[in-house]
Amino acid sequence: MDDNDDEEARGLLEAFRVQNEGAVAIVSEKDGQPYVRDDQTHYWNDALVDRVAAMKDRIIEHALEEGYDALFLIDSDLLIHANTVKRLFHTGKDIISNIFWTKWQKEAVELPQVWMTDEYSFIRNSRQTPLADEEASRQTQAFLKQMRKPGVYEVGGLGACTLISRAAMEKGVRFRRLPNVSFWGEDRHFCIRAAALGFGLYVDTRYPAYHIYRDSDLDGAVRYIRSKSPDPNPGITISLCMIVRNEEEALERCLLSVEGVADEIIIVDTGSTDRTKEIAGRFTGRIYDFDWVDDFAAARNYAFGKATESYIMWLDADDVVEEPCGFKWIGVVHEYLEVAGNIVQRDIAITHKKDKAYTDRNLQIYRRRLEQGEEFLPRDMYYFANELNDHGWFEEAADQYEKFLATKQGWIEDQIAACLKLADCCARLYERDRQLRSLFRTMEYDRPRADCCCRLGALFMSENRLQEAIYWYETATTLGEPPQSGALIDHASWTWLPHLQLCVCYDKLGQYKKAYEYNERALDYQPDHPSMLYNKRYLEEQLKERAGG
């Protein structure tokens, strides 16, 4: 449905139709009052809601007339994973939405487009005994936490990004207003009809969509697209194919030398009478018998025929893969070179300019190794947790960080970073107390770090506990230089960020002189920062008004 009043947008739709000739139908909907939005929110009225409901119902009628098995309704400001529709269809649900999260007001917290009851409530309230505020808050946090956990869940209401089966459409689900219901928004009326007709409502949280609700969300949209794009060079996988016979003396040494190199090991035995197959069985289950026909090529071709990975490597049992130069790479992912000798540090900057899309390649490597029963070393526990965290598996990541920290092993900087990242996961899971404990836990390993102090300040500021926030931001400004340990440094936290946040705190307290002073200190680090320049003008006006008054 083309409801654009922007000719450029209309042109993009037409170009899309031409590129997909025969698969796209555009119906123009020009008449009606304009739809208004800004960087704060979107502005709706009854006429606009009724108009959108009518358009959606027309799409349902079209789907029925054309004999489609299902209908996927998606708003034009949503970005989805390439497999979203296929994944939703395979759940077998008649009505299911793919989750997305939005700050409905610019300064508010992110909330999902699904809910449990009424117009937009996340709890099931009893009509006879309303929940106490504390219990209502607990249930709300539990619902939001569940929506962050990948899975398929039943809900009471949903909107946008929704797959509807033909059965549901034929039975009468529609968006038009119910005359005896005053709920706001066409999605509520759709959900009430669905429930009345006996259809459950479900949400799939496995791959959240991205909502471009305001122009300031566009940068995040670019990152989302890159993160979901397939990696054209995802790395190689290797099948090691060997033909063996009576190699009990040499085989173990050979296979030990290729641990971590081959993704699968294929052993073709041509008639061993010793322990060769028993030894091979310690490394792989892919062991095959081949009747020897005095033809090495035939045996190797048979072994190659069993390979399933993208590259094939072959060795004889008396071959050994040796590390050169005495240096050794360690780690299946985020590998590092183990070296010894004098270490000299220099101020040389290497800028990593990644021009390929981010993928979940590393995460899948870890998952495969976990499924194979591998016990991770502490360093791999930490990096596995990082991959889970980076891809939105926050609950699983939090558990993995805890496992890593429980080993009490690993580089001290990784342990501190694990506490900080664990705190970030807890914030996404709405576990505030655990988040706070994780931040304070960093101080078990070393003196306070500025990035931890700034996180503590941000937590207390979000709760309007400004004095506590001020304490931690001021602490961050007194810590001096960051430790030269070779770890990554959050330079903002060690320089301008705590001063800028102190400016905000003191502004909220009406102490404009102090706010101005801290903003000036922040400007010393970032003289062209637009927010700081705005603060400067704003605070000068406030101080001038008070001086004049």
TrEMBL record:
GO terms, molecular function: glycosyltransferase activity
Q: Where are the TPR repeats?
A: 496-529
Q: Does the keyword Ribosomal protein apply?
A: no
Keywords carried by this UniProt record? Glycosyltransferase, TPR repeat, Transferase
What organism is the protein native to? Paenibacillus mendelii
**Is Glycosyltransferase among the key words of this record?**
yes
Protein name, per record: Glycosyltransferase
Instruction: Show where the Glycosyltransferase 2-like domain sits.
Output: 239-354
The record ties this protein, via PROSITE patterns, to:
TPR
Q: Which EC number(s) does UniProt give?
A: 2.4.-.-
Pfam name, any one: Glycos_transf_2
